[in-house]
Amino acid sequence: MRRFFILLALLLPIYGFSASFAVAAQPVTDAPNTQPVRVLVTTNSLGFLVAEIAASLIENKKLELKVLAAPGRDVHYLDARPSFIAAARRADLLIETGAGVEEGWLPVVVSSAANPAINEGRLGRLRVAEHLTLRQSITVTGPHAGHVHAAGNPHFNIDPLRMALASRVIARRLGDFFPDQRAELIKASFLLEKRLKDAAKKMAAQLIEGQRFIAYHEDVDYLEEWLPVINIGYLEPIPGLPPTSKHLRSLVEQHKGDALDREPKPRVIFAAFNPSQGADFLKNRLGWTTHPVPIEPEQPNWESYLKLMIIWTDAFDKKY
Ligand SMILES: [Zn+2]
Predict the structure, then answer these.
(1) 119: CA distance to ligand 1 center in Å?
(2) 137 CA to middle of ligand 1, Å?
(3) The CATH number of the domain where 48 resides is what?
(4) CA of 220 to the centre of ligand 1 (A)
(5) Same domain? 162 vs 272
(6) How buried is residue 70: exposed, middle or buried, by Cβ count under 10 Å (0-12/13-18/19+)?
(7) Ligand 1 centroid to 64 CA: how many Å?
(8) Above 80 in pLDDT, residue 29?
(9) 248-294: per-residue pLDDT in tens?
(10) Of the residues 164, 182, 201, the one at which a domain ends
(11) What separation in angstroms does the CA of 226 have from each of 120, 202, 204, 221?
């Protein structure tokens, strides 16, 4: 893993990742009598679950929600910014995705914050991936074992069905902080679970079944968990390593028959922050379409997450 980050540090300047970003703006309010429970989450996807489950607590200023990662950023590669550390110092509960996705920066944030309440193993720390069954990463077994995603594919936020399960996990933990509201929180998570499952089912029914796609990274492959689509490969030769010409040429060799094959043609789907050159290479040689998509909601709320589900679904051909 360390080897991966060293390699990454060497590659980042080449691929133009910027080292700075803005913190998602959240209103900070002063409760007149009691301090709110401060919930810090790493992504808008997790923030969306908290915001929906605990809407009334937020409205009544009993819970203050703050999101660290700006939505357009790749959450693997953030920096431990001073503002992150300051937020972690004040947090009562830190909710992270887990499975290593925040490993490059969150441990530094937490250790620098020196806030024992959010240390590993404490009630104030929740690593959601540990409570879910993840997609097995292609790096779990075989020659690439131990590489990034060794703990499984952490990008469950792209699967509304797993997000539904995550909402239960988060509701239970919030219940530990608000024992009097525990039943309401669990109920709210069940309602959210139903909305997520219903929306997923409705969108899946719109698509022509069996459409194939190549992902850039092991993230949007979660689409095949809830849409009737099939992932047939990755532009990255190994998760976390940018596409190489050798790997791209091998993909073209492997799939050039598909261009004359059945319709709809396979396509390339990738996070909008990933470079597009690899996808363009397949587009030029195979005539496939390319689809950069956001992978985090713009805001931590239901509307933004639903919009994201619609964008993902629209990357495929519909029956009507
Ligand atoms: Zn990843």
Answers:
(1) 23
(2) 9
(3) 3.40.50.1980
(4) 10
(5) no
(6) middle
(7) 28
(8) no
(9) 999 999 998 775 566 788 999 999 999 999 999 999 999 999 999 99
(10) 201
(11) 32, 11, 7, 10
